[in-house]
Each structure stands twice: as structure tokens, then as C-alpha cells.
């Protein structure tokens, strides 16, 4: 019996090793110098696994926490990015691997085409809530009031099953431009790595230099991938990317340990390959001299690629052949400028200028994605270049509904060569309920970046741009996000009313408190006998002069006024020494009461 149990355990281990042996892990880091003493670092961690891992539940290198989410909500492709900062196309060019994600949080999902259409919204709601807790971000706000389904901008980039058809109704895209990125997002992202940030290139991911950078972006991309060139079978590929633009104060050189404030302590033995690639212009202002010889070098007319194999205690030092200056990177073939125009808080316009520096016409798909609190006037849409109208090959418009879904339109355009095309349309800023304003209402409301998709021609000679076309040769990049000031009530008015009301209450309370708590004592008056009063009335009738009765206070005041000049008679002494009279004069008892008062 014992030998039988050992045999079964051995067979199980062999079967498990056979299943897990298909998983592969690779890691790489590409460094590229930019102008103004900046260096671009692009981390890429790739895990390849069998697609059956989602159904069988036998996970090895592929993270189980992510796999369960993909399987539960029938996800075919997933792109999730968290970005802080703005990629400067005009200064840094177009990145070679599509790292220029939009600011904030961005989610792109292709659901399985076999999923019923009526269940897509339900799965989308569950997915964003699961990813919100998974990556520690406010992705749960990307509900149906924020999400949209473009038709031409996004197409599947992974291996597509020929038995299934792509349906844009099963696609969801959402962008939260106000989302901030911090260490609470980096920590769960690093836990997806096989080495967990403890070995290999992941040990360079120090939070302080990453979040002090000019630009940083984290991404999680899951796609099916072909095993062979014939694509007769597919794998499930997970790519964890991180791009960061770091500044170094050194004028003539930089090192790997100085850029990331850390060094590679030990190798990640799980990785099949671990490389560091340095990409720099072959000639020009950003040309580099590497202190240690690379393991492999690829030369071209425009760029040089130097590759190093990562070992324990690996470090790298590169020095500039010429002192770098501002503007060392040539402008890209295509770049944009997007801004708001108009004045007031009721109406305005959104303008996007697209510059084509190529010698040929470029066909693009331009997508605008406007939140529901801005109403688009589509009849005001104008597309001009050098004063002449640019024809629209195709227009797809999805109107928005207040508090239900955003507005979205896609334009298929041909950009003229060596010209700037201006896209302009008017919007109306809606009034919100007072409960819909955020705590910083006067900061404004964020409008997501526009998306431009197209095939960019090869860069001209001498340019530092080397395009790497993904998918079907399509390059996608994003414009700036916008901040719109909506009609905002005066939220300081309740504070002013509270201050004024409290002041009035305080003043009234003091007077009322004094009146209701203190005892008022009136001075006593001498009672006149009834016979004396009758006598006085008879005298008044007969016309005789009658002396009026005075109080004790009046008598004391009268005595004080008759005191000769230069002599001082105390008021209380006068009232005490005065003798009582018959007709209305004070007595000793009344004088004492007045003194006490």
C-alpha cells in the first residue's frame, strides 16, 4: 500500500511538472537618453502560460488572483494602465513600445464574443469592482456613466480565434483622468511578478525615485499569443510594463544605481532571460559612451542598441559624448495640441491641433470621449487645414445622456502632408446638483484625453524616433486631458450664514441672559399718609402752591448740589444726617436702601 501511494504521488508530480513546464518568464529594461538630462526607463516583465490555466486552475507563474478574475468575467483581452504625468510628444518623441498611456486610470476590455450581449454590462460592473480591490485604485467609478464602446479606435491586438468574430458591442473602454498613482498601487503590481520585487530587475523598482519622476506609467496587459508563425495554437501572455522618465543631476554621465537609487542584488533564477538594453543615437547630441563593453551590439544608421545580460550586483555607467542640451530630440512625425477656448461658465469650445510633419498624407482615426456633463453640438464641428476644409471619410457619433452615458464620436481623416489640421466643436456646460460636486469643486472637472490611431510612416533620417508598430502596424497615442470649470455655486455661503447666525445668537443670548438671571431692585419711596394726600389735593383745587414728594435718590442729589464750592460732602453722609420732614423728605431708612443699591 505504501509503495502504491508513492507511485501515485510520483506520477502526480511528473504530470504537474509537465503542465507547469510550459510557463515562461522573461524580463528586460531599456534605457534611452532624452533631452534636458532625462533618461527613459522601460521595464517589461512577460509571463507566458497555457490558456488552459484559467479553466484547470493549475497556476504556476501566472498569478492566480488575476487568472480567477479573467475566468469569472470571460475576458479575452485586458489592458489596464495607471499613469501620472503627461508624455511630451514634441520634446521626447513617440515611444517605441506604446508606453504613452493617458493620464490617470485607463481600462480597455474585450469580452468573449460568446458572452450574451445583455450580460456585458453586468460583467463590466463586476470586473471594475474586482480590479479596484485588486490594484487598490478607484476603478469602481468607471461604471456605465463613464464607459463607452468605440468601433474603429480599438481592435484586438492578440491572437484572434478564427471561429469567433470581433464585436465592438463586447468592448468597453473607460478613462479616469483624475486618478492618482502612488505606492499603494505599486505594491500589488509588484506582487504579480514571479520574483516579487526581491531579485532581478524588479529589485530596481524603488518607490521614491519612481514617484519623484516627470512621468511614470504602470500597465497590465493580458492577450492571447500565437505559439508559432502559423498560429495553429495559442498561449496566454501577461505583460507587466512600467515606464518612467527620470532626471539625473550629473552633467556628463549617469549610472543605473544612481537613477533608481538601488542596484540589482541577485538574479531572478526563474527568468529565462534578463537583459538591459541601452538605446541611443549612433551620432548626435545624445550619443553615449558605455564604460563596460556590452554582450551584444546592433548598429543602424539612426540608433545603436547595446545589450547586457543581468547578473548579480549588476551596474551600468554611460557618459555623454557631447553635453546634452534642450531640443536634442527631433520632433516626431505626428504630434498634437489640445486645449479649451471661449469664456464664461456656460459655453465653450474644444480645439485639437494635429501637426503632420511627414511628406505624405497620414490616415488616422480621431476619437473624442466627452463626459455627460458636457453637451456636444455636433453641427458646430469644423475640420480645417490652412484655411480649407478637410473632408471626413467616416463619422460615428454616439450621443450622451445626462447621468447615464458619455458622448463619443470617431472621425476617419486624411491629414495633409506638412500641415496642421484643426478640429473644433462647441460644448455646453451643464448645471449639476449640489450633491454631485466634489469637495474641490472650484478645481474643475476632468475631461479624458482624445485618442489618435493611425499608421505612422518611418521617421526621417537623423531623427531619434524609431517606431515599433504593434498589432497590424497601428500606432495609438493620446492627447492632453482637459480641466473644465462648470457653473459652480458659492459653497462658502453656508459658512458665512453660520458665522452671521452664531454672532447674532451670541449677542442676543448675552442680553437675554442678563435680563432673566439678574434681580432688579427699585429704590423705596416714602409713603404719604392718606390725610396728607387729601390735604394736598384740596390745596391744588384752591390754587395753593404744593411741594411735590421726592424720592430718597432725588433728595440725596439735591443735598449734594447745595454744597458750597470748595467743600466736599459725601453723598452717603448727607443722606444720613438729613432729618425727616413732614412733606415728602427722605428718612434714614430710605437713605440706607439707596446706599446699598
In short, what is this structure?
This protein has 597 residues and is α+β, with helices and mostly antiparallel strands. Helix content is 22%, strand content 31%. It contains 13 helices and 25 strands.
Structure report:
With 597 residues, the protein is α+β, with helices and mostly antiparallel strands. It is 22% helix and 31% strand. It is built from 13 helices and 25 strands. The protein has a 10-stranded mixed sheet. A 5-stranded antiparallel sheet has the order 14-15-21-17-18, with no helix packed on it. A 5-stranded antiparallel sheet has the order 19-20-16-23-24, with no helix packed on it. A hairpin with a 5-residue loop joins strand 14 and strand 15 (347-356). It starts with a helix and ends with a helix. Mean pLDDT is 80; it is low at 6-20, 459-472 and 551-597.
Write the layout of secondary structure elements.
Elements: H1 2-20, E1 24-34, E2 38-49, H2 53-56, H3 64-72, E3 75-84, H4 89-92, E4 104-111, H5 120-135, E5 171-176, H6 183-190, H7 207-211, E6 215-226, E7 234-247, E8 253-255, H8 256-260, E9 273-281, E10 288-290, E11 296-299, E12 303-309, E13 317-320, E14 334-341, E15 347-356, E16 362-370, E17 374-385, E18 388-389, E19 392-398, E20 407-415, E21 419-429, E22 445-447, E23 451-454, E24 475-478, E25 482-484, H9 493-517, H10 530-542, H11 552-561, H12 571-577, H13 588-596
Parallel strand pairs: 1-9
Antiparallel strand pairs: 1-2, 2-7, 3-4, 3-6, 4-5, 6-7, 8-13, 9-12, 10-13, 11-12, 14-15, 15-21, 16-20, 16-23, 17-18, 17-21, 19-20, 22-25, 23-24
Amino acid at each position: 500500500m505504501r509503495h502504491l501511494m508513492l507511485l501515485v504521488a510520483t506520477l502526480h508530480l511528473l504530470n504537474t511538472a509537465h503542465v507547469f513546464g510550459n510557463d515562461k518568464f522573461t524580463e528586460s529594461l531599456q534605457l534611452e537618453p532624452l533631452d534636458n538630462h532625462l533618461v527613459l526607463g522601460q521595464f517589461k516583465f512577460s509571463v507566458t502560460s497555457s490558456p488552459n490555466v484559467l479553466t484547470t486552475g493549475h497556476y504556476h507563474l501566472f498569478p492566480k488572483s488575476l487568472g480567477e478574475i479573467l475566468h469569472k468575467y470571460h475576458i479575452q483581452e485586458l489592458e489596464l494602465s495607471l499613469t501620472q504625468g503627461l508624455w511630451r510628444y514634441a520634446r521626447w518623441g513617440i515611444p517605441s513600445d506604446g508606453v504613452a498611456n493617458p493620464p490617470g486610470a485607463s481600462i480597455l476590455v474585450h469580452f468573449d464574443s460568446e458572452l450574451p450581449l445583455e450580460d456585458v454590462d453586468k460583467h463590466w460592473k463586476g470586473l471594475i469592482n474586482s480590479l479596484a480591490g485588486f490594484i487598490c485604485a478607484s476603478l469602481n467609478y468607471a461604471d456605465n456613466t463613464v464607459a463607452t464602446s468605440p468601433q474603429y479606435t480599438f481592435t484586438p491586438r492578440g491572437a484572434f480565434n478564427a471561429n469567433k468574430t470581433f464585436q465592438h458591442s463586447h468592448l468597453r473602454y473607460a478613462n479616469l483622468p483624475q486618478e492618482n498613482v502612488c505606492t499603494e498601487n505599486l505594491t500589488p503590481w509588484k506582487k504579480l511578478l514571479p520574483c516579487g520585487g526581491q531579485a532581478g530587475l524588479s529589485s530596481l523598482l524603488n518607490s521614491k525615485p519612481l514617484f519623484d519622476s516627470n512621468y511614470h506609467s504602470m500597465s497590465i496587459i493580458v492577450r492571447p499569443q500565437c505559439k508559432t508563425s502559423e498560429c495553429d495554437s495559442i498561449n496566454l501572455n501577461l505583460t507587466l510594463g512600467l515606464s518612467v522618465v527620470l532626471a539625473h543631476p550629473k552633467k556628463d554621465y549617469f549610472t543605473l544605481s544612481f537613477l533608481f537609487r538601488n542596484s540589482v542584488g541577485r538574479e531572478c533564477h526563474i527568468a529565462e532571460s534578463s537583459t538591459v538594453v541601452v538605446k541611443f543615437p549612433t551620432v548626435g547630441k545624445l550619443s553615449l559612451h558605455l564604460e563596460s563593453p556590452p554582450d551584444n551590439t546592433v548598429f543602424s544608421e539612426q540608433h545603436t542598441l547595446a545589450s547586457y545580460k543581468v547578473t548579480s550586483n549588476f551596474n551600468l555607467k554611460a557618459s555623454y559624448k557631447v553635453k546634452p542640451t534642450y531640443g536634442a530630440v527631433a520632433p516626431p512625425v505626428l504630434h498634437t495640441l489640445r486645449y479649451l477656448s471661449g469664456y464664461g461658465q456656460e459655453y465653450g469650445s474644444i480645439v485639437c491641433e494635429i501637426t503632420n510633419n511627414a511628406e505624405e498624407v497620414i490616415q488616422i482615426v480621431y476619437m473624442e470621449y466627452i463626459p455627460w456633463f458636457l453637451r456636444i453640438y455636433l453641427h458646430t464641428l469644423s475640420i480645417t487645414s490652412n484655411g480649407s476644409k478637410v473632408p471626413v471619410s467616416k463619422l460615428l457619433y454616439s450621443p450622451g445622456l445626462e447621468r447615464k452615458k458619455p458622448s463619443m464620436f470617431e472621425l476617419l481623416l486624411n491629414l495633409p502632408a506638412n500641415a496642421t489640421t484643426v478640429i473644433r466643436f462647441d460644448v455646453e456646460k451643464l448645471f449639476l446638483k449640489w450633491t454631485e460636486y466634489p469637495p474641490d469643486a472650484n478645481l474643475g472637472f476632468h475631461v479624458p484625453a482624445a485618442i489618435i490611431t493611425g499608421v505612422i510612416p518611418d521617421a526621417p533620417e537623423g531623427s531619434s524616433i524609431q517606431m515599433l508598430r504593434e498589432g497590424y502596424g497601428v500606432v495609438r497615442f493620446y492627447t492632453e486631458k482637459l480641466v473644465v470649470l462648470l457653473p459652480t455655486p458659492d459653497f462658502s455661503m453656508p459658512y458665512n450664514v453660520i458665522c452671521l447666525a452664531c454672532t447674532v445668537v451670541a449677542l442676543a443670548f448675552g442680553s437675554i441672559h442678563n435680563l432673566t438671571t439678574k434681580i432688579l431692585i427699585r429704590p423705596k419711596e416714602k409713603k404719604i399718609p392718606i390725610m396728607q394726600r387729601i390735604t394736598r389735593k384740596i390745596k391744588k383745587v384752591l390754587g395753593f402752591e404744593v411741594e411735590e414728594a421726592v424720592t430718597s435718590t432725588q433728595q440725596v442729589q439735591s443735598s449734594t448740589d447745595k454744597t458750597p464750592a470748595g467743600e466736599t460732602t459725601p453723598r452717603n453722609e448727607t443722606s444720613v444726617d438729613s432729618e425727616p420732614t413732614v412733606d415728602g423728605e427722605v428718612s434714614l431708612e430710605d437713605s440706607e436702601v439707596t446706599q446699598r443699591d
